[in-house]
Structure formats: structure tokens, C-alpha cells
Design goal:
This protein is α/β, with parallel strands linked by helices and 279 residues long. The protein has helices spanning 27-40, 54-64, 84-98, 119-131, 145-154, 173-181, 201-210, 214-225, 236-243, 252-259; strands at 6-8, 14-16, 20-21, 44-46, 72-77, 105-108, 138-141, 161-165, 185-189, 228-229. It is built from 10 helices and 10 strands. The protein has an 8-stranded parallel β-sheet. A two-stranded antiparallel ribbon has the order 1-2. Bound molecules: NADP nicotinamide-adenine-dinucleotide phosphate (NAP).
């Protein structure tokens, strides 16, 4: 089984650079999908209250017989819970649904800068959760540099990660560079743009040259850039394919070919305007 490298977060916690994402995995299929991922060797699962499948993730980990300490589990605070009291309750509920006494990483899912609750209040609640010792690291998702600057000015704990959309069609370099300058690890969500980049002729050409699949080439590009990735698949053969990234390399020219594909194209919402709160 391939060894997945880890990256050291700014508080010393090690995160496996490759994980398994479960966005859009139906709740009733989640235990099976995560069970398969754990069998293949994934030891990092990225879920969220918003995905409605934390229970399935917890079930799969419990059934696998793998020590809880060997699996890095991330979940996220949903948009309706940004007020302090709601955030504290939501964290407890996430632990209960996952059937665990701690998380490895808990993230504020979206900054929601246009809604009534200030994300600074939310981050202060995250700091309390971190101080309680039930979460090994805290971070944010979909935060832009200007949101992070406010956290630096008004709060104590620096986020360990920022999980943002990144793939060959969306470089998101301003946020990535800002993270690198401030010891915030970038996690690249939708790393293969939900499949949209896989037919790109430049990518299929590199794939042909290295004798790997387009998905492996794109995921390898992320890994060589130093970001954390957790591709999603409910298809076992694809889970295996996406896990086999550590026995080949892209050369400088191949890396540059993928990097040059940036066209600022999002598959998801813009963090500065996204304001969805579940009813
Ligand atoms: N923080 C956020 O706001 C946020 C937003 C979006 C995503 N995320 C996280 O990032 C994770 C990954 O992003 P994502 O799920 O949006 O998209 P993704 O991983 O970029 O792509 C998943 C899609 O690609 C297909 N696929 C996977 N591997 C493939 C392969 N080797 N060849 C061909 N097709 C393949 C999957 O199909 P099948 O499943 O049918 O095989 C699925 O349709 C999520 O699961 C979630 O954990 C976070």
C-alpha cells in the first residue's frame, strides 16, 4: 500500500496530503463508499454537516476496525450555525453523528460576509472549541485574504488550513499565495473540477506522455504544488486510481502545462457573495 505523505500544520498536527471527499455521496451510500476508501488505504476523510452524511462516515470508521487515531477526520460548521451558541451546539452534534470524541480538523464552511452574523464571532467560537481539546486543529473554508486579515486583527488563533476551490481551470493563486505566506495550508476542493478538466487535450496529452490517467495527472499536479486534496468518487476503481499518485512525477514542463490552463472558472459559488443558509 502506498504511503501518503503528510503535511505539518501550523500547530504541529500532521495531515495526510491525500484524502477522500464525500460531498454529494448520498447518506445511504456513505458507509459503503468510505469503507471501500479505508480498505484501499485512504486515512483522511473530508465531510461536512452540510453533506448530511457524517453518520455514514462514522459508521464506516467504526466498522473498519482501524484505530480512530489512524484516520484524519475533517468536518465543517454549516452556514446556519455561525452564532456562538449555535456553533458550539453544532460541533457537539457533529461529534455525536460521527460517533467520535474528537475531530482532527473543524472548518468554518463559508465566510458568509453578506449575512447578519459576523464570521469573527464564528471564529471566536471555533477558538473555544479548539481550547476544549476536542478538536486537534481548526481552520476555514472559502475565505479570501481580506476575510483572513480580519481574523488576524481581531482573534487569537491562526487558521491551520483554508479549503478553497482549486483545479487547473481555477488557479485561485491570490488565496493560495496568501496562505503560503501566513502558514495556512491550502486544501484544494473539487481538485478535478468534478470531472470537467479530464477531457482537456493538454491534460490528456500529458497523461499519454507519463502513461497515467488524466485524473492521476491532475491530482499529482496538486500534490507537487504542496496542496492537500481529497477527490470524491463512489466508484471503487476510481478511488484506487486516485490513490495511486506516489509512484510517478510530472516534470517542470508538464507542471507548467497544467498551470497554464487557468481561466478563472469556478465550479462552485463565489465566497464573497455566497449567502445560502439551510432553512
Ligand atoms: N469546502 C467546500 O466548500 C467544498 C466544496 C466542494 C467540495 N469540497 C470537498 O472536496 C471534495 C472533492 O470535490 P468534489 O466532490 O466537488 O469534486 P471532485 O473530487 O473534483 O470530482 C468528483 C467527480 O469526479 C468523478 N471522478 C472521481 N474520480 C474520477 C476519475 N478518476 N476519473 C473520472 N471521474 C472521476 C466522480 O464521479 P463518481 O463519484 O461517479 O465516480 C465525481 O463526479 C468533496 O467531496 C468535498 O469533500 C468542499
Amino acid at each position: 500500500m502506498a504511503t501518503v505523505p503528510t503535511i505539518r500544520l501550523n500547530n504541529g498536527v500532521e495531515i495526510p496530503q491525500l484524502g477522500f471527499g464525500v460531498y454529494q455521496v448520498p447518506p445511504e451510500d456513505t458507509a459503503e463508499a468510505v469503507g471501500a476508501a479505508l480498505e484501499i488505504g485512504y486515512r483522511h476523510i473530508d465531510t461536512a454537516e452540510m453533506y448530511g452524511n457524517e453518520k455514514g462516515v462514522g459508521e464506516a470508521i467504526a466498522r473498519s476496525g482501524i484505530d480512530r487515531g489512524e484516520v484524519f477526520v475533517t468536518s465543517k460548521l454549516n452556514n446556519g450555525f455561525h452564532r456562538r451558541a449555535d456553533a458550539l451546539r453544532a460541533f457537539d452534534q457533529t461529534l455525536a453523528d460521527l460517533g467520535t470524541d474528537h475531530l482532527d480538523l473543524f472548518l468554518v464552511h463559508w465566510p458568509l460576509p453578506t449575512i447578519d452574523v459576523d464570521y469573527v464571532e464564528t471564529w471566536k467560537a471555533m477558538e473555544e472549541i479548539y481550547a476544549s481539546g476536542r478538536c486537534r486543529a481548526i481552520g476555514v473554508s472559502n475565505f479570501q485574504p481580506h476575510h483572513l486579515r480580519r481574523l488576524f486583527a481581531e482573534t487569537e488563533v491562526r487558521p491551520a488550513v483554508n479549503q478553497i476551490e482549486v483545479h487547473p481551470y481555477l488557479a485561485n493563486d491570490e488565496a493560495r499565495t496568501f496562505g503560503a505566506e501566513h502558514e495556512i495550508v491550502t486544501e484544494a476542493w473539487s481538485p478535478i473540477a468534478q470531472g470537467k478538466v479530464l477531457d482537456d487535450p493538454a491534460i490528456t496529452e500529458v497523461a499519454r506522455a507519463v502513461g497515467r490517467t488524466p485524473a492521476q495527472v491532475v491530482l499529482r499536479w496538486h500534490v507537487q504544488r504542496g496542496d492537500v486534496v481529497f477527490p470524491k468518487s463512489v466508484t471503487r476503481s476510481r478511488m484506487e486510481e486516485n490513490f495511486a499518485l506516489f509512484d510517478f512525477e510530472l516534470d517542470e514542463g508538464q507542471m507548467a502545462t497544467l498551470t497554464a490552463l487557468d481561466r478563472g472558472e469556478r465550479t462552485g459559488p463565489d465566497p464573497d457573495t455566497f449567502d445560502f443558509v439551510p432553512g
